[in-house]
Design goal:
Elements: H1 17-24, H2 28-41, H3 53-78, H4 86-92, H5 99-106, H6 110-123, H7 128-158, H8 169-192, H9 196-199, H10 201-222, H11 255-259, H12 267-287, H13 306-321, H14 364-367, H15 376-395, H16 402-430, H17 436-440, H18 443-460, H19 472-476, H20 481-493, H21 500-516, H22 525-530, H23 539-543, H24 550-555, H25 559-582, H26 589-601, H27 613-627, H28 634-641, H29 650-653, E1 655-658, E2 661-663, H30 665-685, E3 687-690, H31 702-706, E4 724-727, H32 766-776
Antiparallel strand pairs: 1-2, 3-4
Keywords: Cell cycle, Nucleus, Repressor, Transcription, Transcription regulation
Family: Belongs to the retinoblastoma protein (RB) family.
GO cellular component, one term: nucleus
């Protein structure tokens, strides 16, 4: 009997089970065993009669993942020769999934999950180790909640949130970033320490005080008095004065004053923690470049430019750490929302209140610039906005109430009027021959602007419904991604600090999604623009400077195309760099990039059409392995790809094969990719490539991570511009070995397997780490 088939009394109740599992990319065996366990426990139909079937199924999935994890750990414990493979198994096993992600997919609250698990363990007659895991998790979470409360109170003593107002936008953004950075830094350092720091409240508070001291002194270095509490007794007496010597902060400590914020915590224990454990953990973070700054004095970690970089790195590292079914993502404790997603009445967060002060009507600078006979254009625009409001309300009515939709659209209109005034003024200065009425009649400008700000408005109002995430807004107004990405550049260019870091980062993510896949859809206007080109311009052609370059001149009637392609190549370059670094292929990066670029430009972008950038990068790495006779299987490459922050399973599971058909990445490679690239690959096997040593760098530039969508220059791109390629001509009958034909390729099934050796060692999962510590004590 196929246990995965729906049936019985629970058929209707578990209809959402498969979709929840698909969100997690779970193995089929896990799903089947979980369903079988549920049906066994529900033999009498008691569970299915209740409305909480999803909760029981979530418990069943959790137990099956724990069962696989325990088996892997025991195998490693009893086979010393396999100990070195534990890290690889941890990265590739099905239990490489945070409990937070599991609960989110099944929409189960963490507290309710723990109560259900106690009942489930009794019904399923699970071993004691399962309940022990839940008890440990509950104790750790309780401790962290107490520490979170201490953190919030102490932070309020050290820092102040600047008052609302457009002029305070950057300071308010800095305050929010410091708040998030301090908590993630605490969680990261605590995880670097032995288990007592996690299981003991006193030790956890000691780590917190050390973390706050580090954060506070580094924030003083920034020198922004708007976010510093000037009445805190730990503040240096002359700080903020013109004659204050910043070098005094290199060895300054406010540890005693910060420790006094938790009266019941002895200062002596904090000093011991700082010297014996905290400092060593901090050194490790600097050594592996999880923190950038002055590693001698442990300063400059939150200065301008590095705060966002360090916060991003810590978040990525922490995400990897909690990719374990025994781990809960404790970053969510800073939020006041439940762990399970919910749609609430959107209320504008305090840091965005200043946006309500923006005009909610057409600015006078625009209306006064119109001639008397052109005033009707304003009424036409008003009617257009009314239509767009109705379309948005109708498209989102299944997920937003009328009030919620109206609030989002009103916020988008305020931003629209503000930026429309800035954009039109700038255009008229650059092009004096234009008239205001000509700009106001540009339908694409207004549609894309409203869509852009509706996307931001939903983000501001906290709308986190999956169905309303980008590119919903493009579908709502039938907008083209190629046209839409142009307006993002325009908005960022005309922003003077109003949007702040958070909204700029959101626009950056939207732009990357456009450049990585959406602009290559079949119906994209990009293909119409490229139809006037003989071929897709190469990386060097779009990056080249000077009108004497013939290839560049082909793109310059189309400045929008040139900007778009520069950004696309920069994104491709950055992603390939990261993937090659993960796979330890940096010495071959030049050749792999050459293969990838050829796949982009050949037949005017044929392989990109209806596909994604990452798909061609993965195929380029695999093809390079075959060319150099150092093959990497697809599942080896995908193990490293899954660790990339932008990775999605649909990239390698759903690849367009043409004529409305799709398949996995291997089918695409065999049926389409290699047929188009075979001749090129055969020539490349016989090629000699010379690359200047100064061109390539083994680390992507940090500046790209800060503001990818603001500017792209040639120095940001690690492309071998000085490459000289010589194809050695050979006769067809020369006997030179060629690549295997597509039908001769060995296809490896797409499943989780051991990762490549280059992955390097990872720490053991916490289940064993904690048990070992407890036994030693």
């Amino acid at each position: 009997m196929d246990t995965c088939r729906e049936g019985g009394a629970a058929e209707t109740s578990i209809s959402n089970f498969t979709s929840s599992c698909n969100l997690l990319d779970l193995d089929q065996e896990i799903k089947c065993k979980a369903l079988a366990a549920f049906r066994k426990s529900n033999a009498g139909g008691g569970l299915a009669k209740k409305r909480d079937v999803q909760e029981w199924l979530c418990c069943a999935i959790y137990c099956e993942l724990q069962r696989v994890k325990i088996k892997d750990m025991l195998d490693a414990k009893h086979r010393p020769d396999e100990t070195k493979n534990v890290a690889e198994k941890a990265r590739t096993s099905c239990w490489n999934l945070s409990l937070t992600k599991l609960l989110t997919a099944f929409k189960v609250n963490i507290c309710r999950f723990m109560r259900r698990m106690k009942q489930w363990n009794m019904m399923a007659k699970n071993e004691m180790v399962f309940q022990q895991e839940i008890d440990d998790l509950q104790r750790r979470l309780s401790i962290t909640l107490i520490i979170r409360n201490y953190y919030q109170r102490a932070f309020d003593h050290l820092f102040v949130l600047p008052e609302e107002g457009t002029e305070n936008t950057e300071s308010r953004s800095l305050y929010q970033s410091l708040y998030e950075f301090g908590w993630v830094l605490f969680l990261t350092i605590r995880n670097e320490l032995p288990g007592f720091a996690t299981l003991n409240l006193v030790n956890g508070c000691q780590v917190l005080i050390c973390t706050l001291n580090l954060l506070y002194v580094n924030a003083l270095e920034v020198g922004n008095p708007e976010v510093i509490n000037m009445s805190f007794e730990g503040l240096p007496s002359t700080w903020g004065n013109d004659d204050f010597d910043d070098t005094l902060l290199l060895k300054y400590s406010a540890l005693k004053a910060i420790c006094s914020l938790i009266p019941e915590l002895p200062i002596k224990g904090v000093h011991v923690m700082q010297k014996a454990f905290f400092h060593k953990a901090l050194v490790v973070l600097f050594l592996d470049q999880s923190l950038l700054g002055n590693d001698t004095f442990k300063r400059e970690i939150v200065k301008e430019g590095l705060l966002d970089v360090n916060l991003g790195t810590l978040n990525r590292n922490y995400t990897n750490h909690v990719s374990d079914i025994s781990e809960i993502d404790e970053r969510v404790l800073l939020c006041r929302k439940e762990a399970a997603p919910a749609i609430n009445q959107p209320k504008t967060p305090s840091r965005y209140k200043h946006l309500h002060k923006l005009p909610n009507a057409m600015p006078s600078e625009i209306t006064e610039a119109l001639d008397a006979e052109d005033v009707d254009v304003i009424s036409s625009l008003d009617k257009r906005l009314c239509v767009m409001a109705r379309v948005f309300a109708k498209s989102s009515r299944d997920f937003l109430s009328t009030e919620e939709a109206d609030a989002c659209f009103m916020m988008s209109c305020r931003l629209y009027y503000h930026f429309l005034q800035k954009i039109t003024s700038s255009e008229l200065k650059l092009k004096p021959h234009l008239k205001m009425v000509q700009l106001l009649k540009n339908r694409t400008l207004h549609s894309t602007l409203i869509a852009c700000f509706l996307e931001l408005a939903m983000h501001i109002q906290g709308v986190r419904v999956e169905e309303l995430k980008f590119p919903f807004i493009l579908k709502c107004y039938a907008l083209d991604a190629y046209e839409f990405q142009k307006i993002l550049e325009v908005v960022v260019r005309h922003d003077t600090g109003l949007l702040g870091r958070d909204l700029t980062r959101h626009l950056n993510a939207v732009e990357i999604e456009c450049l990585g896949s959406l602009i290559f859809r079949n119906d994209s206007l990009l293909w119409k623009v490229l139809s006037t080109q003989r071929c897709l311009p190469s990386c060097n052609e779009v990056q080249a400077k000077g009108k004497e370059n013939a290839a560049r001149s082909r793109a310059e009637p189309r400045p929008g195309l040139s900007i778009c392609l520069r950004k696309f190549y920069s994104l491709a370059n950055l992603r390939l760099l990261n993937l090659c670094q993960s796979l330890a292929l940096m010495k071959y990066f030049n050749k792999i990039w050459y293969i990838a670029e050829h796949s982009f430009i050949q037949h005017c972008g044929y392989l990109l059409k209806q596909r994604e950038l990452d798909q061609l990068l993965i195929c380029a790495i695999h093809l390079h392995g075959r060319v150099t006779r150092k093959p990497l299987s697809f599942h080896q490459i995908l193990q490293h790809y899954r660790c990339q922050p932008h990775a999605r399973s649909q990239v390698y599971r759903l690849v367009s094969l043409g004529k409305f058909r799709s398949g996995n990445i291997i089918e695409f490679y065999n049926k389409i990719y290699i047929k188009r690239m075979l001749k090129f690959a055969q020539d490349l096997r016989k090629a000699t490539v010379t690359v200047p040593r100064s061109v390539l760098h083994e680390k992507p530039p940090q500046s790209n991570q800060i503001s990818f969508n603001i500017s792209v220059s040639t120095k940001n791109l690690r492309y071998p511009s000085g490459t000289s390629i010589k194809i050695l001509k050979t006769k067809p009958d020369s006997g030179v070995e060629t690549l295997v034909e597509p039908d001769q390729l060995i296809i490896t099934p797409l499943k989780r397997t051991n990762s490549a050796k280059e992955l390097g060692p990872l720490p053991y999962p916490n289940i064993f780490k904690r048990q070992c510590i407890q036994s030693e004590i």
